[in-house]
Predict the 3D structure of the following.
Amino acid sequence: MKTIKLFLLLGVVAFAFYSFKSFVQEKEWVVPANYKTMKNPTSATDKQSMSIGKSLYSKNCQPCHGKEGLGDGPKAAEQKGDLGDFSSKATQSQSDGALFFKITKGRNDMPAFEKKIPDAEDRWLIVNYLRTLK
């Protein structure tokens, strides 16, 4: 009987630890230092580049993040995590490299776009477009 109680207690503790670990991982998105300091090689003022960035955002990001980047796209309800608000100070204060990393590598419900959008320049153009959503 004591053995069963011990295993039950260990199971509850393990579940609690796993749940806490998942919760912490959901809140924190660690960006490697080399990405934080990356410089965006594309122009944020070129109209053609901005048009491409907007088009790529509309096709790949808008379904979840919404037209204004508020996390209210038509597929948002299907996602488990917080989709963020691209107009927020928290998002806009991130470096271009950090945003590029998140688009490129993804996490949880956020897919990695390095294969879907293989041209790194195109992913940088999305970063430029995100800056217009402030």
Q: What stands out?
A: The radius of gyration is 19 Å.
